[in-house]
């Protein structure tokens, strides 16, 4: 996995591309990314590529830290292996992935 950050010069946001590789969820049919930027509801649909990898690009305001996780087939939560950091979710003993802009 890799988190790609593209900072825009025209406004104080960054285009953040999140990727979930095929080996992280080999049987996945549907993956969403949920986080504090979605209020942990609905989520952002990720596109499945021919390689089996899932990708999504979202715009987020800069100078913030965001927590997120991937929801695979509405059943299994997965963290990003290349997150900038991890923090306790506060809901369970599991951590959330963090992206720092």
Write a structural description.
This protein is mainly beta and 101 residues long. It has strands at residues 3-7, 13-20, 31-35, 44-45, 47-48, 54-61, 65-72, 76-78, 85-88, 95-100. Strands 3, 4, 7, 8, 9 and 10 form a 6-stranded antiparallel beta sheet that branches. Strands 1-2-6-5 form a 4-stranded antiparallel beta sheet, with no helix packed on it. It starts with a strand and ends with a strand.
What does this entry show, briefly?
The chain has 101 residues and is an all-beta fold. It is built from no helices and ten strands.
* Count of discrete alpha- or pi-helical segments spanning 4 or more residues: 0
Mean pLDDT: 94
* Fraction in beta strands: over 45%
Overall 3D form: globular
List keywords for this structure.
101 residues, mainly beta, six-stranded antiparallel beta sheet, globular
Topology:
Layout: E1 3-7, E2 13-20, E3 31-35, E4 44-45, E5 47-48, E6 54-61, E7 65-72, E8 76-78, E9 85-88, E10 95-100
Antiparallel strand pairs: 1-2, 2-6, 3-4, 3-7, 5-6, 7-8, 7-10, 9-10
